[in-house]
Automatic annotation (TrEMBL):
Gene Ontology CC terms: cell outer membrane
UniProt KW Kinase keyword: no
Pfam family of the protein (one): TonB_dep_Rec_b-barrel
Domain of life: Bacteria
UniProt protein name: TonB-dependent receptor
Membrane topology: Multi-pass membrane protein
InterPro entries attached to this UniProt entry: Beta-barrel_TonB, Beta-barrel_TonB_sf, Plug_dom, Plug_dom_sf, TonB-dep_rcpt-like
Renumbered residue ranges of the record's region Disordered: 639-658
CDD domains linked to this entry: ligand_gated_channel
The entry's keywords: Cell outer membrane, Membrane, Receptor, Signal, TonB box, Transmembrane, Transmembrane beta strand, Transport
Localisation: Cell outer membrane
């Protein structure tokens, strides 16, 4: 019976991959077994649409099988992928403060929009605000293995595959019933997790099916329960006080003559100036340690189901289906909304406000604890649904394989929050008569007492429900066919052809308070609705051509060619080629390399995201100074004395794709005299142009004033007197990047002994250059955007004897230097910018109880209790919140797997 192309891997692949180690080594070792076999089945490996006997391609591929997944202790695909050294830069995670409840992967330090994510070789939808795949929607318990292509692959897969491809292969061929239960808890007694996986499968004469269901319930923890984030006052580490200048118990009042004041100890409320003391930033009673109630991630409850099956319709045609549904609820707490006064953002309280004890206008800042029932702000209160199904047929036509499929995916997410309305707060703090005249339920607000003096009626008026609803859909038709076309002296030439058509649509609907930019601290959001669905039509061709074999210094030489043409309804077309080479000087040495062009289409939210306008107090106009005439872009002097300008940000319908050129070159050594041993070394280089990013208001002003030519002069609109009317700082195609580095791995599966079976592996990735517009970021940490460390290592070792096994792994992230927000590091303390390398050690022991068909595993994650490195400039997490670090500490788990 013929199965779908992605399913035909099962028996052979499991045998080969289970004998291998993490990363590139499994592919190499498995390939050696295949080369020596006779009449083996051809299978497709990520990076090519052509099924073949040898699993080592012209590009490096990392393979993680189910046994390695279980031994890792990871509970979701995002945390598993973080262990791969090639994952560098900024990834999103649910294990960090300010998490939005999503998780992504970023290869080569590029943003996650440059890493294509597939399930069984078919792309997942990215029609959401971030333009990325949320990895949490993939049921972790149903994964059979993960293949990571560490090379550009736009010629094979299309858009987004600039940094590489993550192809998640799901379980397909299973007979029986299996249940797995996992319970975990941190050494601090929190961060509980409970995971239940159930899998049922059956085979019959003409087909099979599998159903896998999962429930994950994961709790987070309060940030101040960890040493690294015990207090936002970082002076004990040599930094500055990052606390909010609003005490938990009192308002901060600005005196008309200047200076801030807070309520005296022992006073219940402010009745006059005598009830106030001078504000002292060094007094912990005058500031707010927001890590006391912020969570270090989100509480998550996720339910998912995966089912797939196939049925033989005839001797040469098989039908198949896949279906996945995931429902997730995420909730996390953030800083209390506080109109701040020490930073100049207090509320203007009228002399005619009935609660104003001073008889004159004053400005007041206060933590608004009362606007939510618990007094804690739910920054994330998100519910997400993702539904995806595939229907397909595959078969044989002569010597050719073919596959045709239709995939439909729909998602929706709703985020609910209680927001503080800046306009209503201003009205409630203003003149009492004017408040009453609004006829919208306005009631004057009391900001002069301790927590609790804002009544429920007052809180209801100044607060408003904020809702953001995101919806998206993607429908895809795919046709792929491959086979041998003719034979050369060196072997058969294989080719693949295919076509893909897909339709994408996305929308974002926001409630009034966001659309009006009416939240405290300003900012806003706008509805996003493309004028029509995006239509994409693509065709591709691929060929593997063996050139020479069995001559001196050429045991085998072959070339891979691929080309893809893509036509987008909303920005045009593009053609992208790829050339790969495999040369074996001898049977145990492989030299490989590739060159390709790639592209990333602008996301729907980037093209059609609503534009918002806000006042940027930090904007500096070069045309304002006395030397304005030296700037060719200044027609006249701007007479405005106060800094600032209105700035427009958001989507830009004129965006064009990012383009890229990728090169890899490396070798694989698998010596015949040392079976099970392998070494790989690979060089990579990615050059990107036409980058899509959001420029700063000042960058646009400076370039237009100096006639730099980067931005259109029309992006700065001025009034007749030379003052700035508005600066259009929307998304732009500007700039270039160059990424260069090396990947290394050494693996050894030792011969079996009476003492058991041993496996060892070490892998590393070295980022030598990561430059944007000539500025190299390697070795630097940016609190707002992530870390680009030079070195990342992964080490694994395992031992198995009879029914017992022990596995160990460690993950190392190299040292970096803090560069952004240097104000957080006092003068003379430059050494505090240096963050040492970070390494985590994990261990797991397992025992098979054969009589019960049960496997019991116990594990300790971070068993040395390694703390993250303190990042003084990071007011969110207190450490590098974008990389592999977290503050959870030592973690214990118990897993029981039962088969029936």
């Amino acid at each position: 019976m013929k199965k779908p192309p992605n399913f035909k891997l099962s028996a052979l692949s499991i045998a080969m991959f289970s004998a291998s180690l993490l990363l590139a080594t499994p592919t190499v070792m498995a390939a050696e077994e295949v080369d020596s076999a006779q009449d083996v089945e051809r299978i497709a490996v990520t990076g090519s649409r052509i099924a073949r006997a040898e699993l080592v391609g012209a590009s490096p591929v990392t393979v993680i099988d189910r046994a390695q997944i279980d031994a890792s202790g990871a509970i979701d695909i995002a945390s598993l992928l973080q262990e791969i050294p090639a994952v560098n830069g900024a990834s999103q995670s649910t294990n960090r403060a300010f998490s939005g409840g999503t998780a992504t992967v970023a290869l080569r330090g590029l943003s996650s929009t440059n890493t294509l994510v597939l399930v069984n070789g078919r792309r997942l939808s990215t029609v959401n605000p971030s333009g990325t795949v949320d990895l949490n929607n993939i049921p972790f318990g149903a994964i059979e293995r993960v293949e990571v292509l560490q090379d550009g692959a736009s010629a094979v897969y299309g858009s987004d595959a600039i940094a590489g491809v993550v192809n998640i292969i799901m379980k397909s061929d299973y007979d029986g019933f299996e249940m797995q239960i996992e319970q975990g808890q941190s050494a601090e007694g929190d961060a509980d997790r409970t995971i239940v996986d159930m899998t049922f499968g059956a085979s019959f004469d003409k087909g099979n099916f599998i159903v896998s269901a999962n429930r994950t319930n994961k709790k987070t923890y309060i940030m101040s329960t960890r040493k690294v984030t015990a207090d936002t006052n970082r002076t004990n580490y040599g930094g500055v006080d990052l606390s909010d200048p609003i005490p938990d118990h009192s308002a901060v009042v600005t005196h008309p003559d200047g200076g801030q004041l807070v309520i005296k100890p022992g006073s219940d409320r402010i009745n006059g100036w005598n009830d106030l003391d001078d504000f002292d930033w060094g007094n912990p009673d005058h500031t707010q340690n927001y890590w006391d109630y912020m969570t270090a991630g989100v509480d998550t409850q996720r339910d998912s189901i995966w089912t797939s099956g196939n049925y033989e319709l005839s001797d040469s045609i098989t039908g198949y289906y896949e279906f996945n549904y995931t429902h997730a609820e995420n909730q996390g707490k953030n800083q209390i909304q506080s109109p701040l006064d020490v930073w100049g953002e207090g509320v203007a309280v009228s002399a005619n406000n009935p609660y104003n004890p001073f008889g004159e206008d004053v400005r007041v800042g206060r933590a608004m604890w009362e606007i939510t029932p618990t007094g804690k702000r739910h920054a994330v209160n998100n519910v997400t649904n993702d539904r995806r199904y595939t229907l397909g047929l595959n078969g044989e036509l002569g010597s050719w394989d073919w596959d045709v499929s239709y995939t439909s995916e729909k998602f929706d997410s709703t985020n609910l929050g209680i927001e503080l309305s800046a306009s209503r707060l201003a009205a409630a703090a203003g003149d009492e008569a004017a408040c009453a005249a609004r006829n919208d339920g306005c009631v004057s607000i009391d900001l002069f007492g301790r927590r609790g003096t804002v009544t429920a009626e007052m809180a209801d008026y100044v607060s408003e429900e904020g809702v953001i609803i995101n919806e998206g859909s993607m429908n895809t038709w795919m046709l792929n066919t491959s086979g041998a076309v003719f034979a050369l002296p060196a072997g058969e030439v294989f080719m693949a052809f295919g076509a893909e058509m897909r339709e994408e649509m996305a929308s974002t609907n926001v409630s009034r308070i966001y659309e009006a930019g009416d939240t405290v601290f300003g900012g806003g959001a706008a509805d996003t609705m493309p004028p029509e669905p995006r239509e994409v039509k693509e065709v591709y061709a691929e060929a593997i051509v063996p050139v020479i074999t069995d001559v001196f210094l050429i045991d085998a030489l072959e070339f891979d060619f691929a080309i893809r043409y893509s036509d987008y309804s909303d920005f045009g077309d593009t053609t992208n080629p790829k050339v790969g080479m495999k040369w074996r000087p001898t049977a145990d040495v492989l030299v490989r390399g590739s060159w390709s062009e790639g592209f990333r289409a602008p996301g729907l939210s980037q093209l059609y995201g609503g534009q918002t306008t806000g006042y940027n107090t930090g904007a500096q106009d070069p045309c304002r100074g006395d030397d304005w005439a030296s700037f060719p872009g200044c027609a006249q002097q701007n007479p405005t004395e106060l800094p600032g300008a209105w700035s427009r940000s958001g989507g830009e319908p004129t965006l064009q794709p990012e383009t890229a050129e990728s090169t890899t070159l490396g070798f694989v050594w698998t010596p015949e005299f040392l079976a099970g041993f392998s070494v790989t070394v690979d060089y990579f280089n990615i050059k990107k142009d036409n980058l899509i990013f959001q420029p700063s208001t000042n960058a646009v002003l400076e370039d237009v004033a100096s006639a730099g030519g980067v931005y259109d002069p029309a992006q700065v609109e001025r009034n007749p007197d030379g003052t700035i009317k508005v600066v259009r700082a929307t998304l732009s195609n500007v700039g270039s990047q160059n990424i260069e580095g090396m990947d290394y791995s050494i693996g050894y599966t030792l011969p079996s002994t009476e003492m058991g079976d041993f496996k060892l592996f070490w892998g590393a990735s070295q980022l030598k250059e990561y430059s944007t517009n000539g500025e190299d970021k390697v070795g630097l940490y940016y609190a707002e955007s992530g870390t680009w460390t030079e070195w990342r290592h992964s080490m694994r070792a395992s031992w198995a004897l009879n029914d017992m096994s022990v596995s160990y792994n460690s993950n190392y992230t190299g040292s970096v230097t803090q560069e952004e927000n240097s104000w957080a590091i006092p003068e003379g303390s430059e050494h505090l910018k240096e963050l040492d390398g970070y390494i985590v050690h994990n261990i797991q022991a397992a025992y098979n109880i054969d009589t019960l068909d049960t496997k019991v595993s116990v594990g300790i994650e971070n068993f040395t209790d390694q703390e993250p490195q303190v990042a003084l400039a990071d007011y969110r997490n207190g450490f590098d919140g974008f990389g592999s670090q977290n503050s959870i500490g030592r973690y214990y788990y118990l897993r029981v797997n039962m088969q029936f």
